[in-house]
Write a structure and sequence with these properties.
The protein is an alpha/beta fold. It has six helices and 13 strands. It is globular.
């Protein structure tokens, strides 16, 4: 990797500098649009004590769920537990610190982090457990709670296409949390299905400009379906 060329040749190089006790922001929703190979590299490295921020924690045996198996995650900030039995077990047993955040609030906390906004007020969660320990304020007759922005040491992202400069396009619903996660990492790493020459991507189609991206790697993906439903 040199200059404006963000390409790296291996997943080991893609996550160079990742150490224990860091905060990782991960794109994806369920198993849709998850950076599955970057997650696998984190598992291979055995990095521990991690705080992971993502909409959810994958499923048993795939996605972020594999990091739970070796107790690599210390704290999870997510919107829901989902169908991950190990996530549920570690949460109920007190083995995993979990901060459950309303989905829209989580998205806005990440967006604020990427925009350099330290905190914001939202009505979501007022009067519930979500508001416990947080500053509250009444504005124009309505109650709000203060939510702090989220940033991370690493942001891991799954894109569809990118050019050498790190400009990224996402495909359909795989866009989900990926664009906002990409803006909020100190080091943002994007794995894509295809890397194209500069100028091949239509400027109006680019979702994440290369200014947010530090490293790009091309990979192959299983794209597992979280829950398959078929007609009997």
């Amino acid at each position: 990797m040199s200059g404006l060329d963000k390409r790296v040749g291996s997943y080991e190089e893609a996550l160079a500098g990742l150490t224990d006790d860091m905060t990782i922001l991960s794109g994806g929703f369920g198993l849709c649009g998850i950076p599955e190979n970057l997650i696998a590299e984190i598992r291979r490295r055995g990095t521990r004590g991690l705080t992971v921020v993502s909409n959810n924690c994958g499923v048993d045996g795939f996605g972020l769920g594999v990091l739970l198996e070796d107790r690599q995650i210390r704290k999870m900030i997510a919107s829901y537990v989902g169908e991950n039995a190990l996530f549920e077990q570690q949460l109920l047993n007190g083995e995993l610190e979990v901060e459950l955040t309303p989905q829209g609030t989580l998205a806005e906390r990440l967006r604020a982090g990427g925009a350099g906004i330290p905190a914001f007020f939202t009505a979501t969660g007022y009067g519930t457990q979500v508001a416990e320990g947080k500053e509250t304020r009444q504005i124009k007759g309505r109650h709000y709670i203060l939510e702090e922005a989220i940033t991370g040491d690493f942001a891991i992202v799954k894109g569809w296409k990118a050019d050498h400069f790190g400009n990224v396009v996402y495909r359909h619903t795989a866009q989900n949390f990926n664009p906002i996660v990409a803006t909020a990492g100190r080091i943002t790493v994007v794995e894509v299905e295809e890397i194209v020459e500069p100028g091949e991507l239509e400027p109006s189609q680019i979702h994440t400009p290369g200014i947010y991206v530090d490293r790009i790697i091309q990979g192959s993906f299983e794209k597992r379906i979280e829950k398959r439903t078929v007609r009997g």
